[in-house]
């Protein structure tokens, strides 16, 4: 289907901690409990008795996430017995006492802590991100993932072969733009599931995932408002020639009539290609501008559209009648190149095209030809066939075209929503639970579903039968 999504579920937040400042200490000075009576054990600035500092500076207790890079449960390092260390020797060590003393019990305790940490890390299930060492564009819940038995790995894979190799020991995969094929599922026998960081699943081979028993989750109720707002923003920018007028003023011109021809929006017809959640949000906004609304979507019936003040039509009728054609179809084999040479030759002369769905829904060569010939008056594009575009792409040199960098989904609020739902579904995998937004639901009925074979698989099976 082109539209539809499960209902929203409450968002969760991650708890983060940080250490507080510690007292200034002189080199070689031993501190006794009571030196700072206002700082008791457990206070962020408390300094353990008998610890020796190596150089004059202000220290603070280090949080486990600073010391290890992840929040791994375990005992803190054992306190070292009081020892006399000369300032000269301490200075040569170059190490702060909180990183483990260099001699005696402190060294033994530090090594024991590191060995315990390494053992726990080796037994943890790997949550893999393969699209850069910095991770996705939102924070991952390292604490929650660690508590559920996972450890995050971030790598930068340059090609499909490197990605398959990196995912070989992965338990769960986080995917943004990477192409996930059957070869990866076959090469990662321990992969239970993946989470796509957005709505679209055009980069994931869903049938192959199901055959291999791998769950595929996404966030289908993400960024409705943001994309609808961007659609109207692009429409106004193109129809009112905002960027062209801006360049004229910056160039020293002040001639309003130089922007003609322009036409008022009220009374024009907007044609929506696809009528899912985002298109419906666009329709709500478009009515406020006095636009008449028609839509093409073979999977949505006429009564549903009429209930929202939209007339259902076929694609040819939409192209012939619409002054504004706005694309909101997902990218599938059915919709790839949906608007091609034939469609642009049938489009209403002087129409405006807006695309905030997927670049490959529109045949870019046919679009460029329609703009160059004047058949299309303008276009507002948040997505392109190839992203980012090549430097010689003709669209970059057209004044009647407004381009944005596939940013329609990007707001602080949308990314917070996305982060919560991706993190939640990763943790569900680690607990042996079905993810909230499972895209290939047929995998639940397969005995070969890999999620059923892990420790919490019994819970997953129980929930599937309840």
UniProtKB/TrEMBL annotation:
GO terms for molecular function: NAD binding; oxidoreductase activity, acting on the CH-OH group of donors, NAD or NADP as acceptor; transcription corepressor activity. Residues 162-438 form the D-isomer specific 2-hydroxyacid dehydrogenase catalytic domain. The keyword Transcription does not apply. It holds the Pfam family 2-Hacid_dh_C. Keywords: NAD, Oxidoreductase. The keyword Oxidoreductase applies. It comes from the Bacteria. Residues 1-28, 62-117 are annotated as: Disordered. Residues 232-408 form the D-isomer specific 2-hydroxyacid dehydrogenase NAD-binding domain. InterPro entries: CtBP, D-iso_2-hydroxyacid_DH_PdxB, D-isomer_2_OHA_DH_cat_dom, D-isomer_DH_NAD-bd, NAD(P)-bd_dom_sf. Belongs to the D-isomer specific 2-hydroxyacid dehydrogenase family. This is C-terminal binding protein. It comes from Candidatus Segetimicrobium genomatis. The lineage of its organism: Bacteria, Bacillati, Candidatus Sysuimicrobiota, Candidatus Sysuimicrobiia, Candidatus Sysuimicrobiales.
């Amino acid at each position: 289907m082109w539209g539809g999504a499960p209902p929203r579920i409450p968002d969760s937040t991650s708890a983060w901690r940080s250490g507080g400042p510690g007292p200034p200490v002189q080199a070689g000075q031993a501190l006794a409990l009571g030196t700072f009576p206002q700082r008791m054990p457990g206070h962020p600035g408390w300094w353990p008795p008998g610890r020796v500092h190596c150089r004059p500076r202000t220290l603070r207790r280090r949080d486990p996430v600073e010391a290890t890079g992840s929040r791994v449960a375990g005992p803190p390092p054992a306190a070292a017995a009081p020892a006399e260390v000369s300032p000269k020797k301490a200075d040569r060590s170059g190490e702060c006492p909180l990183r483990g003393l260099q001699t005696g019990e402190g060294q033994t305790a530090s090594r024991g802590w590191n060995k315990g940490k390494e053992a726990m890390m080796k037994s943890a299930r790997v949550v893999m991100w393969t699209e850069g060492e910095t991770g996705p564009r939102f924070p991952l819940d390292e604490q929650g993932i660690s508590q559920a038995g996972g450890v995050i790995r971030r790598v930068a894979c340059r090609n499909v072969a490197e990605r398959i190799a990196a995912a070989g020991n992965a338990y769960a995969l986080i995917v943004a733009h990477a192409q996930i094929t059957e070869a990866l599922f076959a090469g990662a026998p321990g992969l239970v599931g993946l989470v796509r960081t957005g709505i679209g699943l055009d980069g994931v081979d869903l049938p192959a995932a199901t055959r291999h028993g791998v769950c595929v989750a996404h966030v289908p109720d993400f960024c409705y408002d943001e994309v609808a707002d961007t659609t109207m923003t692009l429409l106004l920018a193109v129809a009112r020639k905002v960027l062209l007028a801006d360049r004229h003023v910056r160039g020293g011109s002040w001639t309003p009539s130089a922007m003609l021809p322009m036409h008022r929006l009220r009374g024009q017809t907007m044609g929506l290609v696809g009528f899912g959640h985002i298109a419906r949000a666009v329709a709500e906004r478009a009515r406020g501008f006095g636009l008449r609304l028609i839509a093409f979507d073979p999977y949505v019936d006429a009564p549903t559209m009429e209930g929202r003040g939209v007339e259902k039509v076929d694609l040819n009728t939409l192209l012939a009648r619409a002054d504004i054609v706005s694309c909101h179809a997902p990218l599938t084999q059915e919709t790839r190149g949906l608007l091609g040479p034939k469609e642009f030759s049938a489009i209403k002369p002087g129409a405006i095209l807006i695309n905030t769905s997927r670049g490959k829904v529109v045949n870019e060569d046919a679009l460029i030809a329609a703009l160059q010939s004047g058949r299309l008056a303008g276009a507002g594009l948040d997505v392109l066939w190839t992203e980012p575009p090549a430097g010689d792409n003709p669209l970059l040199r057209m004044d009647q075209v407004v381009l944005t960098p596939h940013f329609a989904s990007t707001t602080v609020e949308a990314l917070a929503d996305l982060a919560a739902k991706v993190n939640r579904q990763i943790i569900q995998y680690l607990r042996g639970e079905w993810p909230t937004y499972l895209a290939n639901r047929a995998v639940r009925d397969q005995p070969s579903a890999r999620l059923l074979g892990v420790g919490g698989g019994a819970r997953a099976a129980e929930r599937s039968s309840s």
